[in-house]
Automatic annotation (TrEMBL):
Binds 1 FAD per subunit. PROSITE patterns: PYRIDINE_REDOX_1. Disulfide bonds join 44-49. The keyword Membrane does not apply. This is Dihydrolipoyl dehydrogenase. Its cofactor is FAD. Pfam families: Pyr_redox_2, Pyr_redox_dim. The lineage of its organism: Bacteria, Bacillati, Bacillota, Bacilli, Bacillales. GO terms for biological process: 2-oxoglutarate metabolic process. Signal peptide: none annotated. Keywords: Disulfide bond, FAD, Flavoprotein, NAD, Nucleotide-binding, Oxidoreductase, Redox-active center. The active site is at 446 (proton acceptor).
Amino acid sequence: GEFTEEVEVVVIGGGPAGYTAAIRAAQLGKEVLLVEKKKLGGTCLNEGCIPSKTLISVAKQYSTIEKWAEMGMNISDASIDLPTLQKWKQEKVVNLLTQGVAGLCKANKVNVVEGEAMFANEHQIRVATEHQTVLYNFQHAIIATGSVTVELPGFSPDGTHILSSKEALELNEVPKHLLVVGGGYIGLEIGTIYRKLGAEVTILEGLPDILPQFDNSLTQVLKRNLNKMGINVITEAMVVKEEKRSDKEITISAKVKGELQSFTAEKVLVAVGRKPNTSGLGLEKVGIETNDKGFIPINNKCQTNLNHIYAIGDVAGEPLLAHKAMYEGKIAAEIIAGKASAIDTETIPFVIFTDPEIAVVGLSKKQAEEQGYQVITGKCPFKANGRALSLNDSDGYIEVVADAETNMIIGVQMAGPEVSNLISEAALAIEMGTQLEDLALTIHPHPTLSEVMQEAVENAMKLSIHTI
Ligand code: FAD
């Protein structure tokens, strides 16, 4: 039978966007139902950000063992036990976080239902759980259904030879040779993990360069290190088809700069992008518009074309990042609770957890000039920083971009150690309209990596002490 219940706010999807919106709406006094068909935490906690960063940090520690001898530390036979690592990752990182989300929902009185939601009409949602179907009358709905991987025709993940990013992050054995199709950040991050754990890694990228949206000098630092690590990055390489496979190997063909070549590997990771997850939601039925790429367009209050229905996170468009998803989740909840709130997406940091890491926020010099700014820049390399040298990890630099008229910081570009953590100061600076002088006058503790930021600012002011 079908029950009908009343609810103020229904949130569809329990990823970073959805659980954040649900908790914030509940904090602001709303009665909230959160519907999740798989696992709380969504892509990010279960198969994206968190599992990948866990393996990245372990692979990084493992790979630095090579550098130990020069620093006087000697250990004999280090080895990696992947099943133990995977178990630890699942139990001590992922599960802890997803259970944490469940606990937070409970503490905030968010009603979590495991089931699949679809719109019945503009004010009703149908939720199919294992045992029953319930119809909910809602006042506000928030669509937070995220994104799914784009498949390459003829290369559907089969869990053995052809892997999605999810499966690649769950391997229990380091492949002898991993072929990565797609040189975006996901392919680069996972390729780096398995290279550091001992795999031979080849990355095929269709475009003339990897990460074309970033400054060339920034990606240059990364490319140098990919090369040094022995990762083979092949650009202008378009995959054609599978040629043959055996138990242990798969051979595919690709057009490289127009010429047909074949590549044999133990596993192929397909990481060619993500697309919005809207199938089966019944959007057409209620008249919720999507754009040509399938994303749900929203205004600065996260409202769809129906103003009592919101969309947030990956399903609402680029950038497909967890912190953008959580940010929109808070805004949507605040709007529903009657607060004055709006999205401002100019200072969303973008981080790539490669080695070295890359992190940017605001405008690059080129972008700023294209927008008509008169620009001043300042740069400081990590080689000039005592802490970076003591970590034996000093590739890269920080570049600050400021508006010459106002001296305000409008962008920061980073490549180097821990820049994923350092970028937040830059985001704050831009968000607060900080002038170069303010940051230069802020005393940064010595010796820390954060001094490179201060030094880059001083360099822009032509007052730097430790760089020329
Ligand atoms: P999701 O996390 O995808 O959650 C959507 C949820 O909705 C899912 O749990 C799904 O089961 C549920 N759902 C869908 N349809 C229904 C329905 N009809 N009924 C009920 N439930 C439904 N981002 C970063 O910021 N930093 C990173 O380092 C990073 N690394 C990544 C690494 C990988 C390998 C991948 C794949 C992604 C990574 N991302 C990273 C991106 C990040 O995971 C996403 O931006 C983020 O998860 C988006 O959150 P979301 O809540 O919009 O969607």
